[in-house]
Amino acid sequence: MSKKFFKIVDGCCAKCGAGEFVSEPNQYDILTFSDGQLQVDHTENINDFKIFCRECGVEVEE
Ligand SMILES: [Zn+2]
Fold first, then answer.
1. So where are the chain's domains?
2. Is 53 helix (H, G, I), strand (E, B) or coil?
3. According to the model, what pLDDT value does residue 48 have?
4. Rounded distance between C-alpha atoms, residue 27 and residue 47, angstroms
5. Taking the model in full, what pTM does it have?
6. pLDDT in tens, 17-61
7. Which residues neighbour ligand 1 (ion) by CB within 5 Å?
8. When you count CB atoms within 10 A of the terminal residue's CB, does the N or C end of the chain come out lower?
9. Ligand 1 centroid vs 27 CA: distance in angstroms?
């Protein structure tokens, strides 16, 4: 299975040519429901750092 992503060429998305990128948040809170409320149980980190083209949304890599 090959993953669908594009290279960044000369600082631009190889698919649409846009020059702006967004990162995926690499940290999120795990919530549990107790006493009728959502509460933060703990925070997890994602080691995978992913970048997406801001314009077309495709995953890109350097
Ligand atoms: Zn793009």
1. 6-61
2. strand
3. 79
4. 9
5. 0.63
6. 999 999 988 888 999 999 999 999 999 988 878 899 999 999 998
7. 13, 15-16, 18, 53, 55-56
8. N
9. 24
